[in-house]
Fold this protein.
Amino acid sequence: MSARGPRGEAAADGADLRTALTEAIRYWEPRRVLYNLALAIVTGTVYMANFPHSRREVTADTVQALVVLAVLANVAYCAAYAIDVPAQLSDWRAPWLRVRWVLLAVGLVTAAILTNFFAGGLFGWRISLSP
């Protein structure tokens, strides 16, 4: 199965579905560690910023919620494949491979913002911005 261009011709570099999937896995899976580490840092920062109140908020239910949210964050990370693989199968494969780090950056920033929001809700927003 080879990639087809807009007029039905094979893609210039001959990428097929198997090659695109392999390349996507090779690119995205090592970066999943960075993604999870960044979200753990955001969660830890929110926890420490709300300390000692956050210490009282850590219960079995809170830990269970954190595990569920971590799983959902990793499911969301998989959305990158839905963009990456079709882009690799298109005529724009070569330029896409050079700029797909932008998808990682946008996804990471979005996930960090959502993590901040949910961690704040779990650990109780106790940060005062007034002097």
